[in-house]
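Posting for a labmate who doesn't have an account.
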Amino acid sequence: MIKAICVGHSTYDITVRTDEYPSPNNDIRFIKKVGCGGGEAANIAYMLCKWGIETSLCSVIGADNYGNIIKKELQSVKADTRYLEVTYDNDTDIRMTLLNSSNVSKITYTLADNYTYLKKYDFDFTPDLIVVDTFDINAAKAIIGQYSKAIKMLYADKYSSNATDLCKRVNFIVCTKEFAEAEAGMLIDFTQTKSLIQVYEKVRTKYDNAQIIITLQEHGALYCINNQIKVSPAIKTEVVDTSGTGAIFRAAFIHTIMNGGDVEKAVKYGNIAAGLSVSKVGARLSVPELVEVNKLYEQNY
């Protein structure tokens, strides 16, 4: 049995839909809302468990109703919640999203009393896989450093010196387009294939210790196999909500790697899973079933 540890952010996500963004100084009331657990590391942990990898989540939640909901959701897929730390000083972080249904854009706010980080890094097992995001840098470094033989993946979304330091410590860097552009010091122009190659090469030159995958949202993902830089296109689906697609891509990607797939197969699985997820509202609620992703992979590849 593969055993994994996910380290990073947990939130409670609240999403409301509107036909247009409110204008200033209006008192707007939303009747319907969608609520579920969220956060990059927590979403990856949830999906890995749902897809059959025994996963422990190392994160901080508040001693409140939202924290209890997050814990129960994780336990519903048999996630190991023993390493969730509960803080009594601050409430669970809340991520609020206003989703514009007319053009599928969104505005997201994260509300926190104060960001709270892990205090303990001790485990009673040796993980085969460690997944970290850029939220709790000290915990990520400490846990990565304890297990030299584990496969390690970084979810790199926001560029910072701390994030680049983590990049040097992992086997797989699955980063956003924005992170890659900041790292490369240039922008990707989708009308110019050369710019995709240049950005990828600049990032790869800095981190030749790791396999690098750059997610491109509706354009798919950029990767390298057999020294060839390639783009795997996204699947065509009706887009309702893109929340959580990054975490869902990364969970599908690393699940495929840990089950013997190569990078190319893993990227395709990531694209399929992410593509299926955008048809539903709420990141945690849009995690697809593995059997559905397997079926689409077999039909298309």
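Reply:
Got it, the structure tokens are right above this. The first strand starts at residue 3 and ends at 7.
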